[in-house]
TrEMBL record:
GO terms for molecular function: 4 iron, 4 sulfur cluster binding; metal ion binding; rRNA (adenine(2503)-C2-)-methyltransferase activity; rRNA binding; tRNA (adenine(37)-C2)-methyltransferase activity; tRNA binding. S-adenosyl-L-methionine binds at residues 188-189, 222, 245-247, 324. This is Probable dual-specificity RNA methyltransferase RlmN. It is found in: Cytoplasm. The gene is rlmN.
């Protein structure tokens, strides 16, 4: 099994941001504080401040001696991201953040509050190299991979936003609460930035002081079908949910909608998804953006249901996503009647299928709309 992705899917070689505490595992933190001449317990202390108390400024860490705070800040807590802009909709329930990294790279994350959960959709790359024509991110191309710390800073910022909003004591409907769900469905193909994404996932699901302590079952990693990387992720046994962005059940159409299909065909993507389901015991979410007169024909619903029933059986669930508009696109969402018929055809083959509740469309924060434009 290949241990890395083909060069064509790798990010351009650009300088990564400086080392941050969130880039380090427990052993790395111990080494880092030793270099600073600090006792070993300081590594655990710093991690508990970052992951447990959500503090990223050593000057605010009251259990850290004042004499070493500046030294620790310079060595382990460089400022990685600036919030350039934020915009919200759904009566404040959906908020999109535009981030700028220290090299000027921009990317976005989206925080969505629901009655029973709070979800942040995070980016793993600045831009995307998969070039799916119905996705604004893919049409913008790939700038670079994000570091593990840049990924985790999106999570921490969302958790802080929810915590602080909850402290305001405003009406219950507008309160924040605790961050409960993470979806790697923002900008980029997560499995094309494999090592940093897996490191981020490990720190998301580990309890403090080694991570944010979010349940692995509440973390979703998406992929357009990089089959070797999906199998590799299964072998990590992290227990997270895999979301396979399929969008077509046949190779002829998928070659156009998801260009990576020219390397790993539908059958290979589904074989990898079956391997993931078998190894982890977790249901695979199959994402399907429904496009008027392109992939919404009843026969494609039949074929999708048939292929998923054969490949995954009860461990498949289809998320039908009404296509979200993107600048310059001539494509549109399918009519509701076509959508209902498509869902009916998939279900008739014994496969669970629902239509996703789209959030943030009017602020270009919905699936396929992220373009990091201020």
């Amino acid at each position: 099994m290949p241990t890395s992705l083909p060069l064509v899917f790798e990010a351009p070689r650009r300088a990564m941001p400086p080392r941050h505490l969130a880039d380090l595992d427990e052993a790395g933190r111990a080494d880092a504080v030793a270099v600073l001449g600090l006792p070993p317990f300081r590594g655990k202390q710093l991690a508990n401040q970052y992951y447990g108390r959500l503090i990223a400024d050593p000057h605010k860490m009251t259990d850290l001696p004042a004499a070493v705070r500046e030294q620790v800040a310079e060595a382990l807590f460089p400022k990685l991201l600036d919030a350039v802009a934020e915009i919200e909709c759904d009566a404040g329930e959906t908020r999109k953040m535009l981030w700028r990294a220290i090299d000027g790279t921009t990317f976005e994350s989206v925080l969505m509050r629901y009655p029973q959960r709070n979800t942040v959709c995070i980016s793993s790359q600045a831009g995307c190299g998969m070039a799916c024509p119905f996705c604004a991110t893919g049409q913008g191309g790939l700038q670079r991979n994000l570091s593990t710390a840049e990924i985790l800073e999106q999570v921490r910022a969302a958790a802080v936003e929810l915590r602080d909003r909850d402290r305001e004591g405003i009406t219950p409907a507008a309160r924040g609460g605790r961050l409960s769900n993470i979806v790697f469905m923002g900008m980029g193909e997560p499995l094309a930035n494999y090592n940093r994404v897996v490191a981020a996932v490990r720190r998301i699901i580990a309890p403090p002081p080694n991570g944010f302590g979010i349940s692995a079952r509440s973390v979703t990693v998406s992929s357009v079908g990089l089959a070797p990387a999906i199998r590799r992720l299964a072998d990590e046994r992290l227990g997270v949910t895999l979301a396979l962005s399929l969008h077509a059940p046949d190779d002829e159409l998928r070659d156009t909608l998801v260009p990576v299909n020219s390397r790993w065909k539908v059958s290979e993507a589904l074989d990898a998804a079956r391997y993931y389901a078998n190894v982890t015991g977790r249901r695979v979410s199959v994402e399907y953006a429904l496009i008027r007169d392109i992939n919404d024909q009843p026969w494609r619903g039949d074929l999708l249901g048939k292929r998923l029933h054969g490949a995954l059986g009860p461990l498949a669930h289809v998320n039908v996503i009404p296509l979200n508009p993107t600048p310059g696109s001539q494509w549109d969402a399918s009519p509701k009647a076509a959508e209902r018929e498509f869902v009916k055809r998939v279900r008739a083959r014994g496969v669970s299928c629902t239509v996703r509740d789209t959030r943030g469309r009017e602020i270009a924060a919905a699936c396929g709309q992220l373009a990091a434009q201020s």
